Structures are given as C-alpha cells and as structure tokens.
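P.,

For your records, the input lines for the assembly:
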Amino acid sequence: MPSRDITEDRHDADPRPRDITDMSSDSAPQPDKAHGGHDNRPPHLAHHFETPKQQFESGKLGMWLFLATEILMFGGLFCAYAIYRGNHQDVFLYGYGALDKMWGATNTVVLLASSLTMAWAVRAAQKGQQKLLIAMLVATFMGGVGFMGIKAVEYKAKYDHNLFPGQQFNAFYYESGKPKYPEKLAHAIEYIDGRNAGRGGASHGTDGQGGEHSDAAPAPGEGQVLQGAGHQQAEADAQAPAAVIVTASFAPPADVTNLAPPASPADAGVLDSAIDHAGVVQTPHAGHTQILWEDLSQTERGKVHIFFEIYFLMTGLHGLHVLIGMGLIGWLILKARARTFGKEYFTPVDVIGLYWHLVDLIWIFLFPLLYLIH
Amino acid sequence: MSDAHTNDDHNHGIGHITPVSLLVGIFALLIFFTVLTVAVTYVDLGPANIWIALGVAVVKGALVGLYFMHLRYDSPFNGLILVTAFLFLAVFIGISLMDTGEYQRNIPPPPTVRPVTG
Amino acid sequence: MSVIQDPVNSGVYSGQDQPGGTNYINHSKGVMSWLLTLDHKRIGLMYMVSVLSAFALGGTFAIILRTMLFTHSSPENPISDSGQELYNQMFTLHGAVLVFMFIIPAVPAILGNMILPLMLGAKDVAFPRLNLLSWYCYIVGGLFFLFVLLSGGLDTGWTFYTPYSTSTSTSVAAATLGAFVLGFSSILTGLNFIATIHMLRPPGMGWFQLPLFLWALYATSLIQVLATPVLAITLLLLLAEKVLHIGIFDPALGGDPVLFQHFFWFYSHPAVYIMILPAMGIISELISTFSRRHIFGYSFIAFSSIAIALLGFLVWGHHMYTSGQSGMANAVFSLITFSVAIPSAIKIFNWLATMYKGSISLATPMLYALAFIWLFTIGGLTGVFLGSLALNIHAHDTYFVVAHFHYVMVGSMMTAFLGGMYYWWPKMFGKMYNEPVAKVAWFLIFAGFNLTFFIQFIAGSQGMPRRYADYLPEYAFFHKFSTVGSYVLAAGLVLVLLNWIHALLKGKKAPQNPWGSNTLEWHTSSPPPHENFAETPTVSDPYVMGAWDYDESIDGYVHNPQKAQELAQQGHH
Ligand SMILES: [Cu+2]
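Structure tokens returned:
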C-alpha cells in the first residue's frame, strides 16, 4: 500500500521550510518531529499535512466550500421558485392549498431536533464520550427516518390527487390552453378548492368578483362556476376553451375579443396584460388568501402544475440530501462503534455534521416558502 | 475568533466544544421561531407576511450557522464562504427576477386566448 | 493506459538526480498503481492523456464540419437531409466535447494538478482522494458523451437551449448527464485548489508571494465552486423537463424558455473565465521568465484575476440580447460587460510592461505567450464590440460571434495551454522536446488559427449566420479560405503531438531548471520525486531569478544558494 511508504519516507527527508517561521508558530507544537519517526505521527494524519489541526481545518474548509456549491445548486430551484412566484403570485396562493402546514411544521421540528442531536454528537466526539456519541448519532439518524416518513405521507396524498409531476400524473397539465386530463383536473380542483375554502374566512364569488363574472358573455357552465363547483369549470375548459376564456372578462371586450392573432408583440402585450389584470382584479387580495380555481386567469391555470413541480423538485432534492445524510450518519455510527473517533480525531463527525446542518438550514427556508404562502 | 483559544471548556485539542446548555438553548429558540412563523400566518399582514416569514427563516438559519455549525468560533473565512454563496445566489435570483418581471408583459398569451369565435 | 505505461516499462526514465533513482513516474509500477494513485502528479498525467484524447476527438469533429462547409449546395448538387443532420451533430459535438472536456479542464486539471502543489512546496493537494474522484468523474462524463456519439448523437448546440432540446429525439438526456458529471469533476478540482492554496502554503509564502499562476487558479476555482452548481441544477431541470415533461422551460406547458437561458448563462459566461483565467496565469509566468524580468505590477495582475472572476458573474445576459430579455436587463448587462475589459486590459499592459527592456528569449513557450497576447487582444476587443447592444443586434448569431469566441476560447486558451505544456514539459517528464520542430509547429498553429478565424469576422459582418449547414454562393470564398486555414491549424497540432511523443521516447535529458525561473517547482529534480521535494526549498520572491546561474554543460540553470541569500537580504531592506 503506497501510502505507508509515503508516511515513512517523509520522516527521513522531511523537515518543511523553517527558515521563516511565521506560520508554524500558531500550529501545534512539534518538538522532535524530525527525528521522532512515525511513532509520533497520529495514525490519522495524512502525509501531506503537518499537524492534526491543519488537517482538521482543511477538512472543514473543504466541506464549507462544498456547502457553498450545495447552496448554489439549490439556489437554482429557489430562483425558479422566485420567478414563478414573483410573476404568478396567484398560482402559488392557489397551489399551496394542497399542502398541509402542520405536517410541514412538524417536519421542521423533527429536523431541528436532529440538528440538535448532531451538534451534540460532535461535542461528544470532541470529549471522547463514545456511548453518548453513538446514542446521539442514532438519534440523528432516527430524525432523518421521521422526516422522510412524514414526507412519504405527504407525497402519498399528492399522488392520490394526481398532483405528481410527470406526463401521466399531474392533473394540472395544460397543452395548447386545454387541460390534458379533465377528470383528473376536476378531482384535483375539488380537493384543493375544498382545502382552500376550509382555510377559513371569506366565502368567495360574492360581491365584486361575482359581478364581474356575471357581466361576461354567457357561456356553457358559467352558472355553475359561479357557485364554486370547480370541476364543472374544468369540464367546461375541456369542452369549450375559447368561450370560457372570453368569459374571463377583461374591460374592453371590443378590442380584445375581435382580435386576430396578435399582429405584433405590442398587441400581444396589451392582450396579455388585460388578462393578467383580470386575474388580479378577481383576486380577493384584501386579506383573503383563499384563491379558488375560478379566480385564476387562463394563463395562470396553465401554470398551476409548475407550482407542484417546483414543490416536488425542491422537496425531492432536499429529501435526497436527507437520505444521503442518513447514509453518511449510518457510516459514522459504524465507525463510532469501532471507536474510531476521539479527542484527537473527529473530523468526519464534524464535517458530516456540517452537511446535516446545511440540509436543516435549507429546510428552514423551504418550509415558509412552500407551506406558509400568504 | 480569539474565543476559540480563551474558552475554558477546551484548552487542548482542536475545534471548539459547545456547551450543552448553549446547544439546548439554541434549539429552544429555533422551536420558538418555528411556532412564531406558523402563528404569523394566521394574522393577515398583507405583503409583509412573506418578509416576516423570510426574516424569521434568516434568523433561524443564522442560529444554526453560528452555533450548530460553530461559525461563531470558527475561522472567519468559513463564514465568508457561506455569505458569499448567498450573495451570488442573490445576484442570480435578483437579476433573473428583475428581467422576467420586465418582459412578462411581452409574452404572447397561449393560443386559445386568441378567440376563435369572436 | 498503455500510453502512460509504455515509457515506464521501457525504462526511459532514469530517475536522474535522485539517489534512489526513482521519480514519481517510476516510483511504483503496474496499472493499479496509476488507477488508484493519490499522487497529484500522476493524476495530472492521467488527466493529460484523457483530456488530450478528448481534444483529438473534438478537433476531428471540427475538421469534419469545416470540410462539410468547404462546399455549398446548388440546384444541381443539393445538400441532403442526412448531410444536414450530420452537420448539426458535428457542430454540436465539437462544441460540447471541446468545451466541457477540453477547454474547461485542460489547464486546471492537467497543469494545475501537476504544478500547483509543487509551486507551494507542498507534498500534495489538500484532498488527494477527491482529486482522484475528480478524474473518475471526468472519465464517467466522457463515457456518457461516447454513449451520445453511438446512440443518435446530439444536435442542440452545446447550449442545450429549450424547447428544442426537450423535443429533439437525439441523446440529450445522456449528454446532460455527461455534462452534469463533468461539472462535478470541475467542482472537485476547484474546491481542492482553494483548500490547498489556503492551507498548504509554506511558511514564508504569504498571499502576495504566490506565483501569479496560483492567483489565476484560485480565481478560477472560485468560479468553479460558485457557478458550476448552477449548471448542475440547470441540467437536472432540463433532464426533468425531458423525462417528466415538467414544463418549467417549455412555453407549450406554461413555462419560460428565456429562464433556461438565464440559468444556462449564469454558469456559462463565468465558465468562459474558467477557460481563460488559468491561461492568463500561465502567460504571467512565461512573460516574466522569458523576459528575465520581475513581473511588472504583480498585485494588479493578481487582483485583476479576482476582479474578472467576480465581474464575470454579472454579465451573463449579454448572450441574451435577442432572446426576448427585457430592455432594462439588456442595458444593465451591456454596461457591466464593458467593465470586464478593464481588468483584462490591466493584465495585457502589465505583461507588455514586463517585457519592456527585458532580455527576451524567443523560446517556444514565449512564442506561445506572444501569440496569446495577440489573439487575446483581438478576441477581447471584439468582445467589447459585441457587448454593445446596437452592434450585437446586428451581429448576433453570425460568424462574427463565432470568430470572437474562437479567438478567446480557442486561440487564446489553446496557445496558453500549449505554451504551458512546453514550459513545464521538462519538469513533468524530465525530457526536452525538439526546439526547431516546436517552433515550426507554433508557426503553423498561429498562422492556421488566424487563417481559419480572422476571415470569419468578415464573413459575419457580411451577414453569414452561424450554425447553418449551407450558405449562399457569395460566402463561398470565406468558407473555403477558413477551411483551408483549419487544415493548417490541424497540421500544426499534429506536429506538436508528434514532437511530444518523440520527446517522451527519444528526448534529451532535461535539466532541473532549463529556463532559470524561480518558482518552487524548479527547485526540485525533473521529473520530481514521488514526494515532490528531496530537499525542502526555501521560499523567496518567485520573480527574482538572480540566484540561478546558467550552466552550459547541462544547458540549464543551477541554483546558487549564496546569491539567493544575498538577494533575500536585499529584499528585506
Ligand atoms: Cu459571455
């Protein structure tokens, strides 16, 4: 094994430059290193490091750099989130109805607790408390199990309501302005609208907004829509897309309804802003966040699936990191049982701990962004 | 970061040893903020809600970073890495968000919005 | 592996200057001693073999596509559909392979791995295992691209723009996975270099005693660590889009294709600096050494590397002026793009000032350095043209852009890489190359490159669009001229390769320090021992070369410790 040779070689030939000693002063004392032979060299100290402290600090620096890459990788998803939420607020207000904030909060607590036990495990390793170290690592691992268990329950509920991404599943797929799976869509709308309505407060579709609806040209199914039966709306979408869209009612119907395919981007801008504007007007912004299906403009309806995809991508990638973390902690448990770690050597516990805390830290941001939309 | 050398909890060995009381105290704070952030969603504050939620998340994240991840006692460079990562992320999100927001009104609507019947 | 093994087994390496007769190449034997090695020098060599193979592959694609462009269609002789498809594949694959597998890894992974720890007087990089893992990531990524080649190719362009990339039937999924894994290889290298430069600097080497090559590698690594993860998530999203049809980027599903370009260029513009910054680092070393003068404006060059790395993150939108990006963003990006010219110009002027009144030796590495200054100036200045909105709208997606980025990414980066290879070749292998042949090859490359690409500026300004398999007769002269130039360039590169192989097998024994430069890698034998330094080198100013005396008998420089001491004392006063 070549690394052995390395370790031995270095003691014959080693001493590092000592002519200028500004750096060696703050590293650990190294008295008879040059003559001492390898007995003095801790077994875990790699050949290219001078001191355990240097090795430990290097390991931590490496992990921090890796965590920076993790942040920027997740950052791409946060960016997608910010852009869709920033530009399509109502889509998010609608979609988040399918999520359960109590499950989210519970999972936050579970993950925070596992972060506590992880930090405690590092302390135990530093102090050489072998049993406590193993106990804390096991507790952390169980935190991961609990988190993923709750996540599984939540995913199951989404799956049952056709909200999963992928061509075959997601109820909210629109293509060319039509829902791809009208029956699934109706089911999903019922589920989410039901939950949104149950979130308390204002009943929807009365006063101002209702008025706008009734101003619109009569269309098949419009009457039922006003009563809040989302699934009929969905069917109406499927059957008579053009008519329904017209009923989405923007102020100057003469300009818009007679419009041929927009002649220039500027025209398209007018048309689209009119639609989005309609969506905004319909939104009961004044303190009520219970967006229902019929509050969404046609453009927005076609984007509801994107909320769920962002939800699944973010929590999915995060869940994957939890699983990887659990694997690493499992490996730490095996190593700890073999009494690998002690006061002099606990770098793996420390850096895997950093990784676990980062996974926690990312969840700390995911939780309010996904579950606490307001 | 001279704390790391003067703290009595550890005078030999490497790395900073965090006292149990501090760890548990931080955990309690984190739980408190979690409850707080959920509670705030039951009060309607308009657009302030999201900023409060994010603010609380930043505080929680800072607690995790400073104490659980030892940043408070660590080489400042490690903290700098974390801050830099967030800064570059902010550039990425900020400029993309600005641009997408600007061109949103230029996006043609989906085909069916162009009325077929009139 | 036979390429690496042969010289070892044939006993070419005599382990000169080593009492034990061993160096890192013959220190242990057998394929496994290479495949499981943790030695940064061996990993550098393995990278060299694999990256140069990728270069040969991508270069072949490039020659094929230039050959296809030698002729254009006419009513009697129309271009077939399959011909057009083949062309799309060739231009895509030449771009993807050369960008992800040659230009990005070449300097950091080959020369950086080889030289960075030596320049620090260290025994290895901070994380040797991650270093090896990075090479395996590279190989796995390469295998994905091989799979792409054999399974339907790729015709999206190297940029993978949606929605075309999610709808084409070619192997986009495999290619994105390949680029994803290659990204990890790049991240691991960058992470390792940052940690190494922070933690393994020897006593006496503060930040401002670092050789400028290391400053450049440090700045490069910052980009690798901060930008590459965004590429990773972009490719994952593209993959999800392709496989699950999630539609974040697909307008038919309510998504936003311009968003994909934001994602892609947030990585890929900084990636241009992953390509060029380490090349600039090499040039700083070469210019000082072969002018036998202390580098001029050390801290300006050092900080300009960092400035380029940071500013590079703020200009990605200049690739998107015509994509539907908002006017506001266009203006902001254009403005910041101009500012990148400042640190780049600072470097150029400091190199020129270093040469001023120097004792310039036109050895092969220096010829490449001079070629770099020439090519980079053209590539950089045309970049400023393209950064301005008005001209860009006109020149976008024409050969003007093609010429511009080839001057930077190929002309500049490749000449610096070749210069660095020649410069450190004696150190890496303990063998000298044939100098006259090297100069002829240099001339062919420099001439061939300019013949191929300068005329593309003209073709582009006349309106020749890029990425087309066919063109109007009025562009025929430009294309034929360019194609002939590319053959000259290829001939030069083949000559370089033959010269290197000849050097390995029959080359003259190299002295410890053939150039008289003072960075620490020249303070050990050529090639270095397994542990890098038999005797610990003394750190001193890397650009003070006075302590090296020329010795005719070995055609190299010998260190004079007494002079070194005197110089060190002078330095202190
Ligand atoms: Cu660019």
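Two observations worth noting. The longest strand of chain A covers residues 174-175. Residues 178-251+269-296 of chain A form one domain.

Regards
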